[in-house]
Amino acid sequence: MTYFFEDWFSMVKELQSSINIFSDAGPDVRWVGNEKGYAGSTCWSTINATSLSIGKASILGYLNTGDPRGTNWLPAECDVSIREGWFWHKSQEPKKLSELLQIYYNSVGRNCVLLLNVPPNTTGLISESDVQRLKQFRGAIDTIFSSNVAENCLLEASSQRGSRGGGFGPENVLDDDHLWTYWAPREEDKENCWIEMRSKSGKVKFNVIRIQEAIGLGQRIMKHEIYVDGIRVAKGSTVGYKRLHRLEMGVVNGSSVRIKIVKSKGVPLISSLGLHFDPFWNTN
């Protein structure tokens, strides 16, 4: 069977020029390579589109991780259903809240877009059990991220571009602009640089650490580590628009949190940081 993808894409763009088209090969958003809702722990928004084609099974791993040397900006989208399958069946129930939150951390929390399928039932409506689970899911996300204890911390960095007050200081990571304001270290300090949050009074309680790059200027961070009171509690590779570390050891009470950029393609630009408490996280 022959599919005329290029012709279809061209017509869609002609009729709605601002649309983003999703497929294995983009052209705007790429499939993540599975239907579990999980991205790779390393996930670049860049990839080489010339290596992609729709329906090519051999590229699933490449789709999942992206390519730091990629020349095309094609962020990954994680698609998964709220139920076991894509279609409604009376015998199935929606995923548990804990499962949906795990999907969220492994998709949105790994620099991806999340597409959550909610199938209509035989009446053409969304089942009440699915509606309630969606409300529960939305409420949980709001509960976790509505409060950022980092806002009550002092900020310090290994260095900053230019002089104090020059627009690139660590204070930018706590403003409301998560795209165009950021902390930038000096050019010569692009690796093994750090930014630290220190509590103004006593220890703070959290179990989720959020890092965001100034993605409007590209994705740069290749390797990072996180220390609480001098002890490493998490490490990772890419960050991108958003990286969420839900700490495996559970709740942490600490007075200082240091984000160390171990390796970066260019000067790392961190636009936002957060320390959050997830009351739904059970490490058992």
UniProtKB/TrEMBL annotation:
Domain (Glycoside hydrolase family 29 N-terminal): residue spans on this chain? 77-136
Q: Which SUPFAM superfamilies match?
A: (Trans)glycosidases
Task: Recite the UniProt keywords alphabetically.
Answer: Glycosidase, Hydrolase, Signal
Biological process (GO) annotations held by this record are:
fucose metabolic process; glycoside catabolic process
EC number(s) stated in the UniProt entry for this protein:
3.2.1.51
Would you say which domain of life the source belongs to? Eukaryota
- Can you supply one Gene Ontology CC term for this chain's record? lysosome
A GO molecular function held by the record:
alpha-L-fucosidase activity
Similarity comment: Belongs to the glycosyl hydrolase 29 family.
The name this protein carries in UniProt is alpha-L-fucosidase
What is the species listed in this Swiss-Prot or TrEMBL entry?
Answer: Striga hermonthica (Purple witchweed)
